[in-house]
UniProtKB/TrEMBL annotation, chain A:
Keywords: Cytoplasm, Initiation factor, Protein biosynthesis, Repeat, WD repeat
Quaternary structure annotation from Swiss-Prot or TrEMBL: Component of the eukaryotic translation initiation factor 3 (eIF-3) complex.
Coiled coil: none
The organism of origin for this protein: Chytriomyces confervae
HAMAP family: eIF3i
SMART domains assigned: WD40 (SM00320)
Record family assignment: Belongs to the WD repeat STRAP family. Belongs to the eIF-3 subunit I family.
Protein name, per record: Eukaryotic translation initiation factor 3 subunit I
Origin: domain of life: Eukaryota
Listed SUPFAM superfamilies: WD40 repeat-like
UniProtKB/TrEMBL annotation, chain B:
Annotated RRM domain residues: 32-109
Subcellular location: Cytoplasm
Keyword RNA-binding in annotation: yes
Keyword field: Cytoplasm, Initiation factor, Protein biosynthesis, RNA-binding
Listed SMART domains: RRM
PANTHER family associated with the record: EUKARYOTIC TRANSLATION INITIATION FACTOR 3 EIF3 -RELATED, EUKARYOTIC TRANSLATION INITIATION FACTOR 3 SUBUNIT B
Any single Pfam family the record assigns to this protein: eIF2A
Any single GO CC term annotated in Swiss-Prot or TrEMBL for this entry: eukaryotic 43S preinitiation complex
Xref: InterPro entries: EIF3B, eIF3B_RRM, Nucleotide-bd_a/b_plait_sf, RBD_domain_sf, RRM_dom, TIF_beta_prop-like, WD40/YVTN_repeat-like_dom_sf
Protein name: Eukaryotic translation initiation factor 3 subunit B
Example GO BP: formation of cytoplasmic translation initiation complex
Role played: RNA-binding component of the eukaryotic translation initiation factor 3 (eIF-3) complex, which is involved in protein synthesis of a specialized repertoire of mRNAs and, together with other initiation factors, stimulates binding of mRNA and methionyl-tRNAi to the 40S ribosome. The eIF-3 complex specifically targets and initiates translation of a subset of mRNAs involved in cell proliferation. Component of the eukaryotic translation initiation factor 3 (eIF-3) complex, which is involved in protein synthesis and, together with other initiation factors, stimulates binding of mRNA and methionyl-tRNAi to the 40S ribosome.
Originating gene: PRT1
Length: 334, 712
């Protein structure tokens, strides 16, 4: 099926995320205005105006009521999705690199950058039921020594926080004590994305080292790895099939001007179990920066350096595709 | 104890061991003195004259301090002189210059160091036989040909690793042998595949046998280019770093005997090509732009020839193994431009342009060696350039001629010499005036050739021609008489028949299969990497593919496979290689980080006669049966292995997911506590049937119901 092209951003995309129902798609870009779209037809509901810098990350509550965005303007903002109003702003010392709501949406984290003499810091803040009551109180801050944090998400049952770092390490923290629980250097270069499976038992990590790994979240052991020829900027898991999608491509600064062929700006489907490549989706004319699978597993979206979001509703023959060796009935359904 | 309180009486220490270790041998003091023997014996009247004469022989070396010629009682010289030089180096140079020097008809001089003379005087009278070296078995250089399945090998360089592999038709290749840092630059095979050559700072090393043992090494500092003789007996090496010879010449090229490992002769090389390479690339040919091979081997390795271009032009032919100049003199050819050997006969082709003054035409000449008999000449006019393309059997010589139509525009034509026919008739193929011929490619052992011509700036035409059989060519004698007139040559057209013309973009190579028939059109290096397979028998395209930014394309020696590759030396992005079958099916694609080079191992010519080969072709089905069985078995084995692996992976995954599911259900209560409500319950409630009605207006018509009263 023809992809739906969403061209609402003036600059390259940094993060796209579906809400839990999958009817809305939120997007953040290097321009100052995160957007929200209807995922079914690509109609734009609105923008969230208020940031004065690139927006690096966003997350939405389970009930789709509030949106949290982290920006390079040294603020982290919470918005009311329905009205597009900013309901709270956390002032920070450096740019906010990553944001994530915890399960239950009663707390959230945001990570500030290691610049201007500061170190990467994870801030865990309580989220009040009524934004009127929201204060700048912080439950805990964890100062990260060593390599800079590039991505951060909550682990299973909020028992852990998983961070990806610029040197390729993945670290697990205890949010209650601030202690480093586990650390594993599975990648050679910077981690670009970490996305959990629905049950949080495993996650996909992507890296500039041209690979993506499927890692068991209990042990941080790499179970599967997917190797490409270009930096991988994002990787996501299909909730429906044992498939993963990798996106990336030649870094924008190294892109050749003569031909698109050599730059590999494709979304690449791999079989999560057999590690074989099973398909590619072309279309972007810049590297893919962010990928997200629809919670139903029937469509996925990609956001690129080129400023476009492409919403792909998967064709019927994609769902008919199956290896003889696999039997989906064997797999437990959540 | 602090060191300041330490007192040492130096006289108490025994330094003798240090003295012994670092002692420098006292120079005998005579290393600057050379003894010249064999001079004429002269009387006192000619004494000074002879001394001056001999002194003058060292003019080039210089530094003669003194010369003494002892005289006997009778006032006659004793036939030897002592010459003193300023430095030992000069003395050394003088010795090699004067030794075996023909002074006159009856006197040959010999030169020796003064210090050596004493040693010569004390030679023992009894002969001591040198010990016989024990016989060492050498590795079998052609062992790879005994492979059960007649597979071919290739060598791959990636990063610092070099390895030799068996080609397994697209399945994972089997490693034969590999070494880290085997070669400092690139690697290359000898023409029959017996040796693998590696390049090092100190020289080149040849490796061979089943374990790739070191066979021989040739010391030539910073050697960059090599050329084997066709029979693998000799090797020519070139380095940009000169070797200073005793006579003051700088030599760049050395010819070696491979079996003995000895240097046969070294040569100076004239010209500007000798500057150190500036390029960072280490690939073959990437080093410097010099005309290589500089020394060209005859097909039987009997002769090696080099040329001196220009007004004082000459071809110098040296005879192996002595490396002496054939008939002691070069073949003088005024204004020589270029030359080429026939691949099967000792015939040289060369051409000379029209001189600026005088009414002499440009000329292509064929000369036979060693007789120096000129077998054919062909005069040409307005010639700008000529390139020679010999057909691999030496059956045809194609001369690609570029002519000046006006001062700026050029026309191209082909002069094809039929070497096997009486008087060597020449066919002429004229090309369209607008076409700029860039290259020509003969089908190996065949009668067909392909041309690549550029029309305008982007349009590229590929033409396929076939040589008509001898009978169809007429009136060669007539044209010979009128030779030189361009009208006469035009009458000769028709010897070559145009099979097909293709219009292409981005093709700059035609690579014929070594077995003929299949031609691969490729756009390499500067082009995008289009690859097309053509069957020349019915001129149909078999397949078209692409290997983006491909830098090299090579057939395996049997014509069964083709390898296209992207070398990291030229393109840093996505280096690797693709293996194609001979009909253009992509068998495997490998992306290899820092992949530098892949080279098929050449095979020696088959020992079977033509009849035997024909018999095999005829009964091909019989022979292929057993190989088909092996192939089928191999494929099913691989398929089975893949299947089993997948099944195991799937089962592991299923059990992993079940474990996860158990955890998930166990944690359901906890999750509920964190969320504060039961999400699953929430989800169930959320499932509501929503009916949606869509009204679509298909058509709107307005009708005016007429007044019934009208009917009345």
């Amino acid at each position: 099926m023809r992809p739906i092209l969403l061209h609402g951003h003036l600059r390259s995309l940094t993060r796209i995320r579906y809400n839990s129902d999958g009817d809305l798609l939120f997007s953040a870009s290097k321009d100052n205005k995160p957007c929200v779209w209807y995922s079914a037809n690509g109609e734009r509901l609105g923008t969230f105006n208020g940031h004065n810098g690139a927006v690096w990350d966003l997350d939405v509550t389970h009930n789709s009521r509030y949106l949290m965005t982290g920006s390079a303007d040294n603020t982290c903002k919470m918005w009311e999705v329905e009205t597009g109003k900013c309901v709270y702003t956390w002032e920070t010392r450096t740019a906010v690199r990553a944001v994530s709501f915890a399960l239950g949406d009663e707390k959230a984290l945001f990570v500030t950058d290691a610049t201007m003499g500061q170190q990467s810091t994870i801030h865990i803040v309580p989220i009040e039921a009524d934004p009127e009551d929201q204060t700048s109180d912080v439950l805990r801050t964890i100062v990260v020594t060593g390599a800079k944090v590039t991505v951060a998400v909550w682990g299973n049952l909020n028992r852990t926080i998983v961070t990806g770092h610029e040197d390729g390490t993945i670290t697990e923290w205890n949010p209650d004590t601030g202690a480093k629980v586990k650390s594993s250097k599975n990648h050679e270069k910077a981690i670009t994305d970490i996305q959990f499976s629905a049950d949080k038992s495993h996650f996909m990590s992507s890296s500039k080292d041209h690979t993506a790994h499927l890692t068991d979240s209990k042990t941080l052991k790499v179970m599967k790895s997917f190797v490409t020829e270009r930096p991988v900027n994002s990787a996501c898991l299909s909730p429906l099939r044992p498939h993963v999608v990798l996106g990336g491509g030649q870094d924008a600064m190294d892109v050749t001007t003569t031909s698109l062929k050599g730059n590999k700006f494709e979304s690449r489907f791999y079989h999560a179990v057999f590690e074989d490549e099973i398909g590619r989706v072309k279309g972007h004319f810049g590297p893919i920066n962010t990928l997200a699978f629809h919670p139903s597993g029937r469509s996925f979206s990609s956001g690129g350096e080129d400023g476009f979001i492409r919403v792909h509703h998967l064709d019927e023959d994609y769902f008919e595709f199956k290896y003889d060796e696999e039997n989906f009935d064997d797999l437990p359904q959540l | 104890m602090p060191s300041s309180e330490l007192e040492i009486d130096e006289s108490q220490i025994d330094f003798s061991d240090i003295y012994a270790k670092y002692s420098v041998p006292e120079p005998a003091g005579f290393e600057c003195i050379v003894v010249v023997d064999g001079a004429p014996m002269v009387g006192a009247d000619k004494e000074q004259k002879l001394i001056d004469k001999i002194k003058s022989l060292f003019k080039n070396i210089g530094g003669v301090k003194d010369a003494v010629m002892p005289m006997d009682e009778g006032g006659k010289s004793k036939g030897y002189l002592f010459i003193e030089f300023e430095t030992p180096a000069q003395a050394k140079a003088a010795i090699s210059a004067i030794d075996n020097y023909k002074f006159d008809k009856n006197h040959t001089l010999s030169g020796n160091a003064f210090d050596d003379i004493e040693g010569f005087a004390n030679v023992t009278e009894t002969y001591v036989a040198p010990p016989t070296e024990p016989y060492v078995e050498k590795p079998h250089l052609r062992s790879w040909l005994k492979d059960e399945y007649a597979r071919d090998q290739w060598v791959v360089m990636k990063g610092d690793d070099t390895g030799i592999y068996w080609n397994n038709k697209g399945e994972m290749p089997d490693l034969v042998h590999s070494r880290p840092k085997w070669s400092d630059m690139y690697v290359s095979w000898s023409p029959k595949g017996s040796y693998l050559t590696t390049f090092h700072k100190q020289g080149v090393v040849l490796w061979g046998g089943p374990e790739f043992e070191k066979i021989v090494r040739f010391a030539h500092v910073n050697v960059k280019l090599i050329d084997f003789s066709p029979d693998e007996k000799y090797l020519v090496t070139w380095s940009h770093e000169p070797i200073l010879m005793p006579n003051g010449e700088h030599h760049h090229v050395i010819v070696w005997d491979i079996l003995s490992g000895r240097q046969l002769r070294s040569f100076p090389v004239a010209g500007a090509a000798m500057k150190a390479p500036e390029s960072k690339e280490k690939g073959p040919g990437a080093t410097v732009k010099i005309d290589w091979p500089m020394f060209k081997w005859s097909h039987d390795s009997k002769y090696i020839a080099r040329m001196t271009p220009g007004a004082e032009g000459a071809i110098s032919v040296y005879e192996t193994p002595g490396m002496g100049l054939l008939d002691k003199k070069s073949i003088k050819i005024e204004n020589l431009k270029s030359f080429e050997w026939s691949p099967t006969e000792n015939i040289l082709s060369y051409w000379t342009p029209e001189p600026e003054v005088g009414n002499i035409p440009a000329r292509v000449t064929l000369i036979k060696l060693p007789s120096r008999e000129i077998v054919r000449t062909k005069n040409l006019f307005n010639v700008v350039n000529v390139n020679f393309h010999w057909q691999s059997n030496g059956k045809y010589l194609l001369a690609r001629v570029e002519k000046a139509a006006t001062k700026i525009s050029r026309t191209h034509n082909l002069e094809i010499f039929r070497m096997r026919e009486k008087d060597i008739p020449v066919d002429v193929v004229e090309l369209k005036g607008t076409e700029n011929l860039t290259n020509a490619f003969w089908e190996p052992n065949g009668d067909r050739f392909a041309l690549i011509a550029l029309e305008g700036t982007v349009k590229i035409n590929v033409h396929f021609y076939e040589m008509n059989s001898a009978g169809s060519v007429v009136a060669t004698a007539a044209s010979k008489k009128k030779e030189g007139g361009s009208a006469a040559v035009a009458a000769n057209v028709g010897g070559a028949k145009l099979l097909k013309s293709l219009e292409r973009k981005g093709i700059n190579q035609v690579i014929w299969s070594p077995k003929g028939r299949i031609a691969v059109l490729a756009g390499v290096r500067a082009f995008q990497g289009d690859i097309e397979f053509w069957d020349a028998d019915d001129m149909t395209m078999l397949a078209a593919g692409e290997h983006y930014t491909c830098t090299d394309v090579e057939w395996d020696p049997t014509g069964r496979y083709l390898v296209s590759s992207v070398s990291w030396w030229r393109v840093q992005q996505d280096p690797g290689f693709i293996l194609w079958s001979c009909v253009g099916t992509q068998l495997t694609k490998q992306s290899v980080p820092q992949f530098k080079q892949i080279l098929w191992r050449p095979r020696p010519a088959t020992p079977l006669t033509l009849e035997e080969q024909k018999a095999i072709k005829k009964n091909f089905k019989e022979y292929s049966k057993e190989f088909d069985v092996v192939d089928a078995k191999e494929t099913s084995k691989i398929d089975k292995a893949v299947l089993e692996k997948r099944r195991a992976l799937w089962n592991d995954w299923v059990s992993y997911r079940r474990r996860c599911y158990e955890d998930w259900t166990r944690e359901a209560e906890l999750r509920g506590e964190i969320i504060g409500y039961d999400r699953e319950d929430d989800a169930r409630q959320a499932v509501k049937e929503i009916e949606e009605f869509v009204d679509e207006v298909i058509e709107e018509t307005e009708e005016i119901i007429g007044d019934a009263s009208d009917d009345d």
